[in-house]
Every structure is written in structure tokens, then in C-alpha cells.
Amino acid sequence: MTQGNGFFGLDSSVRFEGEGSTNPLAFRFYDKNRQVMGRSMEDQLRFAICYWHSFTWPGGDPFGGETFNRPWMRQGGDPLAKAKEKAEVAFELFRILDAPFFSFHDVDVAPEGETLAESIKNLNEIADIFEEKMKTHRTRLLWGTANLFSNRRYMAGAATNPDPDVFAYACGQVKAAIDVTHRLGGENYVCWGGREGYETLLNTDMKRELDQLGRFLSMLVEYKHKIGFKGPILIEPKPKEPSKHQYDFDTATVFGFLQKYDLVKDVKLNLEQNHAILAGHSFDHEVKLAYANDLFGSLDINRGDDLLGWDTDQFAMDVKEMTLVFHEMLKHGGFSTGGLNFDAKIRRQSIDPQDLVIAHVASMDACARALLSAERMLTDGALEKPLADRYAGWDKAENQAILAGQSSFEAVAERGLGLQPQPRSGRQEYLEGVVNRYVY
């Protein structure tokens, strides 16, 4: 890695040096050209650099303010000029990390104007810069989204707001964001509902708000088809924060919602570990349930802190946790339009520009190592064979007939009268040991 000019002081891109390397600015496991289950490692992992936490988050937390003090965050000056400077630094990082994708919120790439029309003009001006940059950079757009939660107009939600004018404003903002996403060749569009929920039921009509949200998404799906956008609409489940309860609480809740409003065909899920644990689930649980209901779309690859009750968005480093998720993903053929989006923040004490590079490198390596463990585990049938053995009885013809609706309740109950089944071990500790052998 060559020291040089630019915000990060690095001229060359991060390279693969192998497992023996101790260079924090080199990959030890992420060899993008290595074949994993018939696809390159780059194509299996499909890393995306997240625009907002990487270039917009100032380093604050619920108890303290900005610590990063980056040039484009300082008070004063032309907001659009600072947005253009931020775009330059963003593509510098994309080049250094040799990133195949990036993702963005509308208001993170361009400043909000006095009116919606002015905000859209600003967004398109920055999109012009992205379009030119993408002609000479290999980085593509994984997905775009609209920020419908930061501005005070959305304090009572966007699609679920009691004021129809706010609903209409949100429609205009999302239309502009998906138009830019489509124009830049984005592979998905994400709907984030940070305030689509309630703080108190005393002033909330839940049925009305859910119907509004269902109509909003239905209109968005109709518009997606109208403009020829081929990728899925993604919803990111999140149980709380900032609202006490959010309507996209978890995978199961969103599945019920999509069924009710006939949106299952066009809407999939963008899942995140941090949100899973806030909902009282594991990351693996949410991914498996999404696959079980044909809702899997994409992943935000970060982690939370089990000791803190909010969305800390730390860089993903837990190889074992990710191994289980990637095992499930590889079992189903890997990503189609989705990828691993680094919706992650460096810690507020990590104030050096290169800390942002090092965080991505370390997390990309952790993901790569987890992918290799998952590949070995799947190839060996280490978990699949014990799982098949556990349910083998259901493969018999008479039991398949039950599941196919070819046996009545009375007939099955009659069969049960002549049986004396005995319990079999679930072998949990054995399986935990198997996973440890592949991970460690």
C-alpha cells in the first residue's frame, strides 16, 4: 500500500497478501478472484460501501456530538460544494477498497433545499457526478434509498403520517430517489421506515396507518414497473429506535404485512444483525425465516453490541455468526441482486481517516473467512446430513402423503393408536462442536 495524497493518504488499492500478512491495509482472506461454490469470492460477497455512515455520520452518539470534524461537515460554506467534495472522497475510498458496489440515502449525498423541487435538483446534480465517476471507476450501485426519518416533518412517520401532505411529500422524495437509482443502474431499491411506527397508542390508529403504508408500497411497486426498474423493492425490518414500536418489526411481521397487501412478489427483505438482536432474534434466525418465506434479498453487514440497547452499527467481525448466515446463503445459491452492504460506523474515537479504510479491510476479511468456513461446512454436509437424518421419517411415502393433503385427520389419528414413538437426541452440543471445528 503506497502512502500518498488525497483524504486517506493512500494512492494504491488494498491488495490480497495472504493469511500470513500482518499489514492492516491488506487482505488476508479476501481474494476476490478465488472461486467459492462456482463463483468468485467477489461475486459471492458483493460488498457495498455505505455512503451515510462512512461519509456523513459525524461521530456522535446519544450522549455526545461530533468527533470526526471532516471538511465537508464543518459549519458554513456552500452545502452543494461540500456535497461534491464528499463525493470525491467517497470514490477515493471505493477505489482504495476496490469495492464492487456502493449504496446511498438521498439526503446524505445531496443537501436538502428549501423546497422538494430544490432538493430533487440537488440530488440530480450529485447524481450527474456519480454518473461521470462510474464511467471511470468499477464501483456500481447496489441500491439507493430515501431518508424519510431525519427531517422534523417525519416525526410522526412518512407513509403512516396523519397528515396526507407529508405522505405526498414522501412520495415525491421516494420517486426522485428511485429515479436516480434506476438511472445509475442500481440493482435494488430499499424502503427504510425508521419512524413508521408509534411512540404511544393514545394517539395512534394502527389500522389506518398500516393501510396507508400498504398503499404507499403498492404505488411504489406500480411505479417501479412503469419505469422498467428490474430489481426488487427491499424492506429492512427494525423493531424499534427511534419509535417504540415499528411496523416492520422483524421478518415474520413484514411477511404478514406483505401477504395482507399482496406485495410478496415484488418486495423482499434487507436484513441486518443489529436489528435482529433488537427484535430478540439471532441474525441466522432472520435469514433462515426470510428464505423459508421466499423473502431473502440483501444483507446489511454490521453488528450490534449485546450490552447496549440501541443500533450501534459496528463493523461485522464475528466470524462464527457470519459463517452460519453464509452457510444458509450458499445453500440457496447465494445473492442474486443483493449484497453485503457496510451499514457500519467506525467508533467515535477512531478519528484518523485511515481508520475507515482499516475497518472495511478487517470486516471484509472476516466475511471472507466466514465464507470459506461456510463453503467447507456445506461441501462436507457437516450440518446438512445430521439435519436430513433428523427429519428422515418424513421422507417415507405414507408421511409425504400427510403433507400433501392425501390423508385425513381421522386416518392419521387411527394410525397413531398403534404407535409407541421414542424421543431421539437433538445433539445440540455435538453440532455446536462441529461448527467450532470449521470456524476455528
What do you see in this structure?
This protein has 440 residues and is α/β, with parallel strands linked by helices. It has two domains: 29-380, TIM Barrel (Alpha-Beta Barrel), CATH 3.20.20.150; 385-439, no CATH class. The chain is 45% helix and 12% strand. The protein has 16 helices and 16 strands. The strands form five sheets. An eight-stranded parallel beta barrel has the order 5-6-7-8-10-12-13-16, surrounded by four helices. Strand 7 (140-145), helix 6 and strand 8 form a beta-alpha-beta unit. Helix 5 (116-136) packs parallel to helix 6 (164-183), helix 6 packs parallel to helix 7 (206-227) and helix 10 (283-292) runs parallel beside helix 11 (319-331). The longest helix is centred in the C-terminal third of the chain and has 28 residues, at 353-380. The chain is globular and about 85 Å long. It starts with 14 loop residues before the first strand and ends with a helix. The mean pLDDT is 96. Its cofactor is Mg(2+). InterPro entries: Xyl_isomerase-like_sf (IPR036237), Xylose_isom_bac (IPR013452), Xylose_isomerase (IPR001998). Its main location: cytoplasm. Homotetramer. Belongs to the xylose isomerase family.
